[in-house]
Amino acid sequence: MTLTxxxxxxxxxxxxxxxxxxxxxxxxxxxxxxxxxxxxDNVKRSTLLALARFFxxxxxxxxxxxxxxxxxxxxxxxxxxxxxKLTLEGQERYEEYIEFLADKFSK
Length: 107
Hints:
CATH topology: 434 Repressor (Amino-terminal Domain)
Largest sheet: none
CATH class: Mainly Alpha
Number of strands: 0
CATH architecture: Orthogonal Bundle
Mean pLDDT: 82
Low-confidence stretches: 72-78
Strand content: under 5%
Oligomer: single chain
Shape: globular
Distance between the termini: 14 Å
Number of domains: 1
Radius of gyration: 14 Å
Number of helices: 6
């Protein structure tokens, strides 16, 4: 399932449209529309992260078309993970991991 197909399912579950998703997630409406019109090949890491946090799903679930089970992957407390609880080194490793995922799952 592609990113946009997953977004359609998640939007339907919450009875939201793209405009409401934008307003509630903080992702610009033009970015969301662009995902649908141009595809998700070059989606920014920050966009994926914001959507994953909003929908309470893993970054892996959104980024990897082969993953269809959103509960199978760990996401740091559904976006409520406080990075300030990590040491400076931990915060840096977290950011490196997010970048690794974005690079690995980008087309």
